[in-house]
Amino acid sequence: MKKMIFSTVAALTLMSAPAMAAEPVKIGMITTLSGGGSSLGIDIRDGFQLAVDMRGGMLGDRKVELIIADDARKVGNAKQIADRMLKRDKVDIMTGIVWSNLALAVVPDVTKAGKFYLSPNAGPSKLAGKGCHMNYFNVAWQNDNLHEAAGQYVNDKSHKNVYIMAPNYPAGKDALAGFKRYYKGKIAGEVYTKLGQVDYAAELANLRAAKPDAVFFFLPGGMGINFVKQYAQAGLNKSTPLYGPAFSFDEGILKAVGDTALGVFNTSQWNKDIKNAANIDFVSNFHKTYGRFPSLYASQGFDTALLLDSAIRAVDGDMSKTDLFRDALRAAKFQSVRGPFRFGPNHHPIQDIYVREVYKDGDNITNKIVGKVFSSHGDAYAADCKM
Amino acid sequence: MANSTLSRKSLVLLLGLVVLLALPPVALALDEAFFISLFSRILIYALAAVSLDLILGYAGMASLGHGAFLGVGAYVVGILAFHVSEDLAIPFLPGAWTGTTSAVIAWSAAIVMSALVALAIGALSLRTSGVYFIMITLAFAQMLYFFFVSLVTYGGDDGVNLEQRNSFPLLDLGDDTRFYYVCLAVLLGFIYLCQRLVNSRFGMVMRGCKQNETRMRALGFETYKYKLACFVIAGAGAGLAGALAANQSEFVSPGLMHWTRSGEVMVMVILGGMGTLFGPVFGAIALLLMEEILAAYTQHWMIILGPILILVVLFARRGIYGFLAGDGGRDG
Amino acid sequence: MTFFLFLEQTLNAFQLGVMLFLMAAGLTLVFGIMNMINLAHGSFYMIGAYVAAYVGHLTGSFFIAVAVALPVAAIVGMAVETIALRKLYNRDHLDQVLATFGLILFFNELTSIIWGPQAIFVPIPPLFAGSVEIIPGVPYPVYRLVIIAAGLAVAVLLRLLIVKTRTGMLIRAGASNREMVSALGVDIDRLYTVVFGLGALLAGLAGALAGPILATEIGMGENILILTFVVIIVGGIGSIRGALIGALLVGLVDTYGRAFLPTLLRALFEDPSVADGVGASVSSMSIYILMAVVLVIRPRGLFQAYG
User: Fold this and answer.
1) Which residue among A157, A221, A265, C87 has its CA within the 20 to 30 Å range from the CA of B145?
2) CATH 2.60.120 at C3-297, yes or no
3) Which residue has the higher pLDDT, A274 or B260?
4) Residue A21 CA: distances (Å) to CA of A61, A94, A267, A307, A354
5) Confidence at residue A251, expressed as pLDDT on a 0 to 100 scale
6) Crossing angle for the helix pair B131-149 and B259-272, nearest 10 degrees?
């Protein structure tokens, strides 16, 4: 019953430029806007919306109708919304899903219906390998990527006995698999928690008893906030350093956890201090529009819209040219805010991955890039993809 | 008077049937194929609601765990299909059966499995009564919910995706219109069966139990057995609804047996009219359409639904069907 | 597994148990005295948590936040009782389930309209931040100890209220024989409203205390509600003592299951994610198994109401 579905038709600014066609391009966005994981979905939506607004309600010189619905992080909801968007709203393109379990259920429905899906976040291994599809593109990363970088970095820091933790869902398993692919030391403990779990008292007690010399964890959204807070309350932050992917240390989370996260190293493909014209423009516009700094989720939503912009323009707004449209997506001729970006053979990114440190910038707790872990990094599943 | 209410009831039912029969061609003509899949879902929930009403409205057993059988039925279909697509033998079964996508086999298996589960749950739960019965059925449903959450092989929390719908010989269920008519036929068949049941001696005993179980026992009826049989039939009906639901969304997850789902089905029964066989159908239509329509206007539609529910409980016990069909609504 | 780890997990179990007791005490009284199933009890918990989060955010004081949250929860509880639920006392349980299910939907949406659909994060009050070593070498968060202390204090106060005061006498009498109390000319309506308000207040307290360690979000009430029902069914409806024992029992079963089952299951399964998945769900199932077993052996719970 807890389903708060709504459709909002994006405010369309009337432009003086001649409209390419009367009918707007319909984009369906299913994302998480309520409950514990909502900050991620909100950032993706806002990043995407910003790119559309900056172009006067258009992508590729065509008007855009953005239909947004909240999945409340439930697979059943997402499936039902997708059915409605494909059949009732007749969307051309779908995007927006945050969580890998939802993506695994919905993406096949979209591609089966002959439509395109652009993932602004979730990149489960199955969709990068055996389950890849010519109409599925991931604009963020394959799930393992940031964790692989963390594994490499923890190795570089010569930790030998690391405790690792993730939620029990596809992305959680991808995370720990990715970490272990590059980390060469001993595993002090490997724990899968319940997705959406908020109290980590029992896990922290076990963690302390295992006496690791570092902890790697992947707990996106609210789970990460609680974990980092409780980790500090238990006094563990003084004895055992924490490592994680950017997901647990993005802008929204840092605001909630405060000083306790200072000095933590985390891996990301993007940060707001990356110096390129697109990113500088993006960060300042985002801050001006929403009054907060963008997270990496927002950057991914923004990039997704930019990619669409380039591909719609390449077909002159004619969405019936599916083959040309697909080629244009694959070419990825847009300036990503993260810098160099291209697609691998399985339509997943090949990109640089950095390590960031949490520091205090005046009153603001935020991240700065302190090094690059991987250059032009692809993923481990591309070889399994037969397109 | 009796005549006029009877015809009013017949009129309502006839009109309802005509609307349901004509829906797919009309929807297709209007290029609104979405309504076919929406109404397939409604018919499936109507089936679940009718089966719940059998124990709730006729036998007075307030079960808050009906979602369990819905889930078991759906998982039978989901697991059988999963083994076909992975070409994997099903564990704990003799031989190396790799599942099936045949509707006849899978749906029968769903009915049998959910009936067995209902037999087990009912046998224990019926030892209690009143509030304890509500709670113990809830507890068993939650137990099954967590059991399926733990089945990592079958997706755990995320459930199982079906590659395609089950198949009948000569009938492609992948087509939404055909699937819709199958759902409608199954629903009507089940209602017919229930009608026969409640008007039989068995039905008399059930209603007797609802009013005064002690008296029925004094009259020499083994009420426990009657109630258990009724519980099993209702469970089997919900299991069939689960099998259809799995086919409709081509997806199965533990969410089907979460207690709020059981609550939702219960709401359909009450909204439509408890203790009638057609009431729950109207309830399912009303609730799911309300969800669909209100959701389009406001994301906060449940703030409207909540008070409606309370008002219905307080003042309109006969539900929508009772309102539409008048006194003749009670068919038993 | 060390002895210290076991002790630490026992404290965790107590903390959960105490939280459940705060919820169960009110629910079991309403159940026992008015013979009323109130699914919306979790909503009072949510209201307590949200009001405390909101006031705490405005004033920066945890104590003011709790002090405001308690009466708000109590007033909402009494208002709901007077407006809607009073009419349901003589209806069957099914009606009560449905009407209060409707209340859940209403309160969830209302909260979402007022405070937005996102989860709110509440900081630990600075006074109780950090940890102490009550067991040498094992720092334990002060705040969780505060919760345990608060819960035990409430248990003692409730005991005094019920044993020593006139209201308590009426509550005891009401739980064992309702008709008798009204026959004696007691204003039964007022007693009901007071009991309902007291239950809502305790649920609000549980919610306000839970804020800093759990996420304050829509639907938080339903999760704890089901656990609370298990507690009072196991403990016996209408019995405060049963609620306390039941709450601690459920807390122990849940926490030990979560903490130690995966380790035990690791020995059985190769894949740690399978072991943890099974461990997590068997431990959440274990509570319901406990309840089913209790009901099959003692169909009316472990303790009888006062009588």
Assistant:
1) A221
2) no
3) A274
4) 10, 20, 43, 20, 42
5) 82
6) 130
More confident residue, C237 or A59: A59
CATH assignment at residue A378: 3.40.50.2300
What pLDDT is recorded for position B195? 92
Q: Are residues A332 and A314 in the same domain?
A: yes
Domain residue ranges of chain C, discontinuous segments joined by +: 3-297
Residues 6+ away with beta carbon under 8 Å from C116: none
In this model, does residue A353 exceed pLDDT 90? Answer: yes
3-state secondary structure of B130: coil
Are A95 and A34 within one domain? yes
Q: pLDDT digits over C204-220, tens only? A: 999 999 988 877 888 88
The DSSP call for residue A86 is: I
A56: left (phi over 0), alpha (psi -120 to 50) or beta: left
d(CA A71, CA A82): 10
* Burial of residue B319 (number of CB atoms within 10 Å: 0-12, 13-18, 19+): buried
pTM over 0.90: no
Q: Using pLDDT thresholds of 50, 70 and 90, give the confidence band for residue A8.
A: very low
- Measured in degrees and rounded to the nearest 5, phi and psi for residue A116 equal -100, 145
For B221-230, write each residue's pLDDT tens digit: 888 899 999 9
Does A148 share its domain with A242? Answer: yes
- Please compute the mean of the pLDDT values over residues A35-60 and round it to a whole number: 91
pLDDT at residue number B77: 95
| pLDDT tens per residue across span B80-137 | 999 988 888 887 777 778 888 888 999 999 999 999 999 999 998 888 877 888 888 9
Give the percent of chain C with pLDDT over 70.
Answer: 95
Contact C288 B124 (CB under 8 A): no
A162 with A108, same domain?
no
Q: Whats the size of chain C, residue-wise?
A: 307
Q: How far apart are CA A118 and CA A109, in angstroms?
A: 13
Helix (H, G, I), strand (E, B) or coil at B221: coil
| Domain range B2-329, CATH class | mainly alpha
In the structure encoding, which two tokens stand for residue C139, read together? 């720092």
Chain C segment 251-270 residues within 8 A of A by beta carbon are 255, 258-259, 262-263
Confidence grade of residue B160 (pLDDT, cut at 50, 70, 90): confident
Domain boundaries along the sequence of chain B: 2-329
* Residues of chain B positioned with their CB less than 8 A from the CB of A169: 156-158
Copy the structure tokens of residue A360. 């205090």
Among the ranges given (A53-67, A354-368, B149-163, B232-246), the one the predictor scored with the smallest mean pLDDT: B149-163
Do A79 and B249 count as a contact with CB atoms less than 8 A apart? yes
What gap in Å lies between CA B43 and CA B181, rounded to an integer?
Answer: 10
Shortest Cα distance, chain B CAs vs residue A172, angstroms: 13
Which residues of chain A from 38 to 67 reach within 8 Å of chain C, CB to CB?
Answer: 38-39, 42
Regarding whether A98 and A50 lie in a shared domain, the answer is yes
Q: Which amino acid is at A23?
A: E
HSE-up (13 A, CA, CB side) for residue B156: 23
C280 CB contacts (<8 Å, ≥6 apart)?
A168, A192, A193, A194, B149, B150, C258, C262
pLDDT range class, residue A2, cuts 50, 70, 90? very low
Query: How does DSSP classify residue C39?
Result: T
> Dihedrals φ, ψ of C212, to 5°?
-65, -20
- For residues A220 and A277, membership in a common domain is answered with no
Number of domains in chain A: 2
Instruction: Report the residue of chain C nearest A236, measured CA to CA.
Output: C139
Q: Which tokens hold the place of B213?
A: 């179980």
**What residue type is B62 in one-letter code?**
A
A254 with A364, same domain? Answer: yes
Q: Which domain holds residue A239?
A: 144-268+352-384
Give the type of residue at B259: W
CB neighbours of residue A134 within 10 Å: 14
